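Usage

Read records sequentially. Each one opens with the input sequence:
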Amino acid sequence: MDRLLGIGLFWLDVPLALAEVSLALAATNPPRIMPRSRLFSMRPFMDSVRDSDDLQPKYRRVVLKISGEGFGYSGKSGISIDETLSLARQAQRVVQRGVQLAIVVGAGNILRGAQFSAGGTVIREATAHYMGMLATVLNGLALQDALETLECQTRLQTAIRMENVAEPYIRRRCLRHLEKGRIVILAGGTGNPFVTTDTAAALRARELEADIVLKATRVDGVFSDDPEHNPHAVRYEKLTYAQVLRDNLRVMDMAAISLCREAHMPILVFNFKREGNIERAIAGHPIGTLVGEAV
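and closes with the structure output:
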């Protein structure tokens, strides 16, 4: 019994001994107060963390429509490597956040089929539209290589078969690529003449069951008039499909609007030339003009 009592007293003394040691250490090593300069130096880090939280994606799968103007400088034809790389960097950051991204590309920087055939009879309108579809493949190839230089897994799919340079568009294969975290570039429009790449974007968004269509433009949304010619034009923050159709607003062509309306698919029109706006759009920030069921 005495032995057991002695053991019990020993274990009672252990916490007291540890406490005395802690007090002695605290006396010889007082706690260090972080200098103000150190606190200020951490502010950029904390700001970056806060910004990162602000850009958490709201949408899981998106279809981004980029016009041909996104691949070149305003008013100039051809492909700019700098502009293409800028697009690629924004797309890279989006995918790194876990978003499934499909990009429908236009080709206004190279050729517009409707303009090419206007006022002449040598090249028929259908032929001109096919030429425009082929031009989108050039932009798609440029964007694919730009993304791959950033080590992004990318697939280029075309509505017109050309297996030597791209995969044919197959819905189930495209979905599989997206699920694996690959960026899918969709070129060639729908493969049919007399259909715009805006309609192609709406069609692919419905096929792929996307959460939203993002229409990237040079202006900050939808305006009451052309803001590049009328400085007093008013920007709409939100619109309904009915308003767009009724007022014939230049958001997308009517076929694209109707496709999105039938599927209750929201459309966000925004200025992609502002660095980081693609990420902000996917995060649900109030930029551009949102078109949906209700205002």
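Summary fields computed downstream for this record:
- The longest strand covers residues 61-66.
- Residues 102 and 265 are 15 Å apart (CA to CA).
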